[in-house]
């Protein structure tokens, strides 16, 4: 049996975990949702969890276990992005006095620098979750995709070289990192979901809410609704979604795009050029606490994005009973079970055929809606997510040399 990494220790205490992330509320994206879910589940497992993130201004502050470092806008590089300022010594001293047992970084930029420094100072494991396939974002920083990919490869390899373990949501991302030459242990842990919140409408009040949202968008009871929940950015490939809807040429369908972003004017113009502006609704940003309401107005979820590491919105849609109709991509193999929870399409002909199957066969759609919910419940629960990440911490701690501290309890 491997000896405990905590020798001659003081009495047991909860495992202390510091989560670091450049993205946090009020921003709405997949990273924020994933980190918030992980924090909640680790707390439920008995861990002592704090978060180090960026403030929305230059002032550094702390609140309820969250340290916010002063930052300045970097929106010229990426919408709503921020760069951390030289960090507060008070915050750093407070974190070092608290002495986390594991530092879990969620972003590769400002807060990752802090994560490395804290982990190195305390000689504790540094775990990192790789959320973003940066080579799909080369249009933001390089005119050449091949040059951009080389930059991403070198950058990712260097960032991850100092980690004890890397967490990725899918085998697709694991293969990419292996191709980059990353040597740290890579663990596949799909992001979990709060299945008590993401579910179909159940009560009469929830059904009335669905009807009210549809009325607010000018959608009649007879019209069929296709939903997309996404940031309106170029890498999300929403122009293709508009192309597919136009090619399907179904006057009875309305596409609802939930979200906002810098590419909205181009998408609005593209819808007009395709002659489908009257069948597209731009709903704007949804409150993160209420996004499940928007899934419930639809009959299926659509996406053409190829930039997803896992696609949390796909899982949310499944949990709300929406079959998926998505552009073929290896990252979706675990969520799109062909003909059961949805389909992956490769061209307009396939898109139209699958759309007709779902909309023209109510019994088939109901069967797929049930299968979608069951699949989400079986594979994407938040509790499993928390337990699997905790096991990554356990393994990283076992690989570390013995050190004399008060012994943390790593609960199951």
Provide keyphrases for this structure.
alpha/beta, Rossmann fold, eight-stranded mixed β-sheet, six-stranded parallel β-sheet, 18 strands, 39% helix, disordered N terminus
Structure notes:
With 412 residues, the protein is an alpha/beta fold. It has two domains: 10-192 and 381-409, Glycogen Phosphorylase B (Rossmann fold), CATH 3.40.50.2000; 204-379, Glycogen Phosphorylase B (Rossmann fold, 3-Layer(aba) Sandwich). The chain is built from 13 helices and 18 strands. The strands form four sheets. Strands 4-5-3-2-8-9-10-11 form an eight-stranded mixed β-sheet, sandwiched between helices. A six-stranded parallel β-sheet has the order 14-13-12-15-16-17, sandwiched between helices. α1 packs across α13, α7 packs parallel to α8 (264-274) and α7 packs across α11 (348-360). The longest helix is centred in the C-terminal third of the chain and has 18 residues, at 362-379. It is globular and about 65 Å long. Residues 1-9 have low confidence and may be disordered. Residues 28-197 form the Glycosyltransferase subfamily 4-like N-terminal domain. GO terms for molecular function: hexosyltransferase activity. Keywords: Glycosyltransferase, Transferase. Residues 212-374 form the Glycosyl transferase family domain.
Highest CATH level, the class of the largest domain: Alpha Beta
Radius of gyration: 22 Å
Helix content: 25-40%
Name the structural class.
alpha/beta
Number of strands: 18
According to CATH, the homologous superfamily of the largest domain is Glycogen Phosphorylase B
β-sheet strand percentage = 15-25%
Number of helices: 13
Indicate how many domains the architecture comprises.
Answer: 2
Instruction: Return the CATH topology of the largest domain.
Output: Rossmann fold
Domain Glycosyltransferase subfamily 4-like N-terminal: 28-197
Domain Glycosyl transferase family: 212-374
GO molecular function: hexosyltransferase activity
InterPro entries: Glyco_trans_1 (IPR001296), Glyco_trans_4-like_N (IPR028098), Glycosyltransferase_grp1 (IPR050194)
């Amino acid at each position: 049996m491997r000896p405990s990494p905590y020798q001659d220790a003081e009495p047991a205490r909860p495992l202390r975990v510091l989560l670091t992330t450049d993205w946090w509320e009020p921003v709405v994206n997949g990273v924020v949702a994933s980190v918030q879910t992980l924090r909640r589940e680790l707390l439920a497992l008995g861990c002592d969890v704090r978060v180090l993130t960026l403030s929305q201004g230059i002032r550094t502050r702390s609140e309820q276990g969250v340290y916010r470092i002063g930052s300045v806008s970097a929106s010229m590089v990426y919408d709503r992005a921020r760069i951390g300022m030289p960090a507060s010594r008070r915050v750093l001293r407070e974190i070092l006095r608290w002495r986390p047992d594991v530092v879990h970084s969620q972003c590769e930029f400002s807060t990752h620098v802090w994560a490395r420094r804290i982990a190195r100072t305390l000689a504790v494991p540094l775990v990192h979750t790789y959320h973003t396939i940066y080579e799909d974002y080369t249009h933001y920083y390089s005119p050449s995709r091949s040059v951009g990919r080389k930059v991403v490869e070198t950058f990712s390899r260097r960032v991850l070289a100092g980690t004890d373990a890397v967490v990725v949501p899918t085998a697709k991302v694991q293969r990419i990192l292996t191709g980059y030459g990353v040597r740290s242990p890579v663990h596949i842990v799909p992001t979990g979901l709060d299945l008590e919140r993401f579910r179909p409408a159940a009560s009469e009040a929830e059904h009335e809410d669905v009807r009210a949202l549809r009325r607010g968008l000018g959608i009649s009871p007879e019209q069929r609704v296709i939903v997309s929940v996404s940031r309106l950015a170029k890498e999300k490939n929403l122009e293709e979604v508009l192309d597919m809807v136009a090619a399907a040429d179904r006057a009875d369908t309305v596409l609802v795009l939930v979200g906002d972003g810098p590419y909205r004017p181009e998408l609005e113009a593209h819808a007009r050029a395709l002659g489908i502006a009257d069948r597209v609704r731009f709903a704007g940003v949804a409150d993160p606490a209420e996004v499940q309401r928007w899934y419930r107005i639809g009959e299926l979820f659509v996406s053409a994005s190829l930039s997803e590491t896992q696609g949390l919105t796909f899982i949310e849609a499944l949990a709300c009973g929406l079959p998926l109709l998505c552009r073929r991509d290896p990252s979706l193999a675990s969520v799109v079970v062909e003909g059961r929870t949805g389909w992956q399409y490769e061209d307009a002909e396939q898109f139209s055929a699958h759309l007709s199957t779902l909309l023209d066969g109510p019994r088939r759609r109901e069967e797929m809606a049930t299968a979608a919910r069951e699949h989400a419940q079986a594979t994407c629960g938040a509790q499993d997510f928390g337990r699997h990440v905790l096991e990554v911490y356990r393994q990283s701690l076992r690989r570390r040399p013995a050190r004399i501290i008060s012994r943390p309890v790593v609960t199951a």
